[in-house]
Amino acid sequence: MTAGKLIIPSTLRAAANLRSSSMPKEVAKKAAAMLSSAPSGGKHTLPDLPYDYNAIEPVVSAETMTIHHSKHHNTYVTNLNVTLEKLDAAVSAGDVSTIIGLEGALKFNGGGHINHTLFWENLCSKDESEITDGPLKAAIEESFGSVDAMKKDLSAKSIAVQGSGWGWLGLNTQTGKIEVATCANQDPLEATTGLKPLLGIDVWEHAYYVDYRNVRPEYVNAVFDVVNWKTVEERLVAAK
Q1: 202 is in an annotated binding site
Q2: Does 68 appear as a known binding residue?
Q3: Which residues contact 182 (CB under 8 A, 6 or more apart)?
Q4: I need a surface site. Which of 28, 32, 52, 100 has the fewest CB within 10 A?
Q5: How confident is the model over 12-37, as pLDDT tens digits?
Q6: What does the alpha-carbon distance between residue 181 and residue 183 come to, in Å, rounded to a whole number?
Q7: Its Enzyme Commission number (predicted)?
């Protein structure tokens, strides 16, 4: 599965083609921006982690990783599949009201699947986390002045998210600069801001409460010790 690219049956594209004064095309467009073409068997599945549950201890415990991946992420996948089944039935029946009503569930569960898939892949063990000279470091220095300045900006904005959400580094393809952005709940970065996702930090409490209780700043600052900067660089190169 390609990082951050999810799949949706052709029913959503059919929904996007519906014409109704009570259904703005933007509704289907937003959903279609998050997900595209159907997976084998028509169902989304929980991706395997690229490491063991204990691989990024002590920054994040195996207990947290197990619950976060096998319970929370799996719930988004399950609910996404249920939502897509309902969407398929609604499109077949020409039920425009139901199609519109499913937008929130599609965005939330589809976004949760996208965001977490990206998140797992941009983490690694502490001894593998290093920014070396290359396209990523150069782009960070051009955009922020230094790696430390980038970390300070991303950390501050991630910590400041009200309630649940995500902090992101994203590429602005118009300017070529890397930017910091935040998204509420499970809103996916690209569909929300147009930025190409490079690095995500989950600041939902389920991502850190077992290990850090309510001290979000400690968690966010610690996460930088287990970022897979190689993966972040690969995303940057692919996005340009």
Answers
A1: yes
A2: yes
A3: 157, 158, 160, 161, 165, 166, 167, 168
A4: 52
A5: 444 444 433 333 344 344 444 445 44
A6: 7
A7: 1.15.1.1
